[in-house]
Design brief:
The protein is α/β, with parallel strands linked by helices. The chain has helices spanning 9-21, 52-55, 59-68, 85-101, 103-110, 200-208, 232-259; strands spanning 80-81, 116-117, 133-141, 146-150, 153-159, 165-169, 182-192, 219-223, 266-267.
Amino acid sequence: MADPKPPSDDELDELARKFHEGEGAPVAAPAAPAPAAAAPEAIDLDDAELRPEELRSTALARRLTKRRGYAFRASEPKTRQLLSSWGVAGVMILSAWAVYGEVPELRYWLSRDPPINLGHLGGYTLEQAHEGAFVHIEGIASPKRASYSRMFSEHELFPLIASRVLVDRAQAPDESMRGFGFRYSGEGRLVRAEEGGKWDAVRRQFVEANELARSGDIWVLEDGVSPHRGWRLPLEAGAWAAACLGSAAVLLARLRRRLQGKPAPAEIGE
């Protein structure tokens, strides 16, 4: 039996034209060689009714597209973005706000000033006290104390007798010393206990117990919080700064691509 005659160039051109114009009418294709057994995707074109979407999967269609320099748009994978430009801008703003909020603590952590000596029992010099200062103080702890939990750790609170200083020490209260005073000497960061602020409830509690003055400035000494101690703060600030700078770089790259007229990757949800 003689082999069927392969399609001519004119027949291929006509079939390519109909294929790319999306004509849905049945196409009487010229005879083609019998497909090899190893190519199950090939379709016998004798008297076949082929729609354009069916032609996309045939060996003849691939031959036509390769010969004419066309490509199937539907077969091109789309690059997806995890966040839209608005989402990236939101991450940048949130990161910048977090870094800005940690500036005072970073300034304290980087400080190289020696501690300010606020004196001792009977000779306190609280006129040197100011918000965020690194200070040293000595005195007698009041027998009346309080405690609270923060970040999975216990904290003990006690005022120094005859002073306006409340000490916040990061340790569980010593039950054996409950009801007894003891000599205290320590250093740390000094913050003001303002009305309506973080320390207002504690301040009122000790004021009602006649352990602190009812008027005037009351200070809280965060015991052990010293400059250059611990790496949590710089690592946290560095992570937020990296997120802010990375988001800004992504936004600039997308803006540059848009100005140059290059298509952007498809976004999720389109």
